Amino acid sequence: MSYRNTKAVPNHEDEWIRVENTHPAIIDQTTWDVVQEIRAVNKQNKANEKKPEPSLFKSKLICSDCHKKLVFHANHEFRKSGNPKYNMYHCSTRLSTGGSRCSNHSIYEVVLKNLLLDEVKRHFDLINLDESKMLSTLMDRLNGEHSQEKALSAKERQRLKQELHELELRAELHYENKVSGVISAERFTELALESETRRKEIQAQLDGFRESEKAAKLKLADIKCWMGVIKEYSSVIEINRDLIDALVDRIEIGKKLKENGVTSQDVKIFYRYVGSM
What we know:
single chain, 277 residues, alpha+beta, 2 domains, 4-stranded mixed β-sheet, 3-stranded antiparallel β-sheet, 7 helices, 7 strands, elongated
């Protein structure tokens, strides 16, 4: 570094000039070496430390009232003394406002794990019992239609195709009549305009049916994906994060209600691909 230029230019360690023992040391060399060894060990231990893992249901739990996420509270203790501690989730709005906003939306992690495990096994049993029936039921629910409505839609589509074909035939006939002088050019233009307007209406309706078919095929693929995930995890005995990520979109946690000494709570699971079941 120059007194005219304050910019520091680092030199490689090989170019350093060391002059040792120019003045009495503050601590002796033996103590210095021991401390350096301790620091090196501590540094290595810190590097080997595992970062804390995220909570099991992180970013998956939603308050059913304020629609904010629930936050994790490790080793939450039951009010009654002598009971073990469990991980718990609380509504973030209620916590951040000291309970002045939103109501008591909280749930123990062990409750969620048992609930989700039971749900996976229940759905697998239904699939295993009659897979085609399960597939049909889900398709009807996702499409919002019943078999009779589907049959009517198919008939309507066939009728529109037939009408479109008849319009094309009439258009050819009108042209021949114009050429042969049966109708005037002005009348031909009027008829052609009417036919084209109707043709566009029919085509729009048929396009709508095609889009519905595409959507139905996508929903069918989604249902099969969901069923595949259920089958894959049907034998699990412990809920893990991989299962949650593969299966769960979100879980809505309702508030706790107490009536006649019995506490109840609405918990709604929204699955990936198929939504709430």
